[in-house]
TrEMBL record:
The keyword Methyltransferase applies. This is DNA methylase. Residues 176-202 are annotated as: Disordered. Residues 192-202 have a biased composition (Basic and acidic residues). One of its GO terms (molecular function) is methyltransferase activity. One of its GO terms (biological process) is methylation. Keywords: Methyltransferase, Transferase.
Length: 202
């Protein structure tokens, strides 16, 4: 059990480091203008209009029906990967910073851009959630350490019952030996008349 907590804490630390980096990254590349849209680079071409970027993203997805993620551009400083989710039958995007952030894509061009923004807007909350989980896990580890130090509540009772069980086992072993001796004596007694009969026949 004690091995579980340090591993979990380490995983949260890595997650926190990723979120911290990516939250700062997203803050540095905030959407500008009325459309709240940053230029998106796709296949080497930078799109400054939201509608154009959305349509091109859909077109690229349709031309790439593969389940292996492939990099197609960047947005707000994050590298963009797309792939086809064969299980759920839709396209997905990974926003790649220090960590990867998955976005499920649909068939609406502008709707996909909204989904991307929504995913990035959730990063601060996820960072705080990871910090909370790490703190809770550390507290659980400390509690587990204290519990291990405590004496077993029924230690005396267990010791007494173990001693009694050992005594019973010894008695059973002795009884088995006594029974074995009695059986042997009985067999010898039964053999003697047979021998006498044999002597008379001679």
């Amino acid at each position: 059990m004690l091995k579980y907590y340090p591993q979990t804490i380490k995983e949260y630390e890595e997650r926190i480091a990723g979120y911290e980096n990516d939250v700062a990254f997203a803050e540095q590349h905030k959407p500008q203008g009325e459309d709240k849209f940053c230029p998106m680079t796709l296949k080497g071409v930078t799109y400054t209009e939201k509608a154009d970027a959305g349509e091109m993203l859909l077109a690229i997805c349709k031309d790439y029906p593969m389940s292996a993620a492939t990099e197609i551009g960047s947005y707000r400083g994050f590298r963009i990967e797309i792939y086809y989710d064969t299980v759920n039958a839709h396209y997905c995007m990974n926003l790649c910073g220090k960590a990867k952030h998955k976005v499920d894509l649909g068939s609406d061009a502008l709707g996909n851009l909204t989904r991307i923004e929504n995913e990035l807007s959730k990063l601060p909350a996820r960072l705080e959630a990871a910090k909370t989980k790490k703190a809770e896990t550390i507290a659980q580890l400390e509690t587990a350490k204290e519990e291990i130090k405590k004496p077993f509540a029924f230690e005396d009772e267990l010791k007494e019952k173990t001693e009694r069980l050992n005594a019973l086992n010894i008695e059973l072993n002795l009884n088995e030996k006594d029974t074995s001796v009695m059986d042997t004596e009985s067999e010898q007694t039964e053999e003697q008349p047979e021998r006498k009969c044999a002597s008379r026949e001679r």
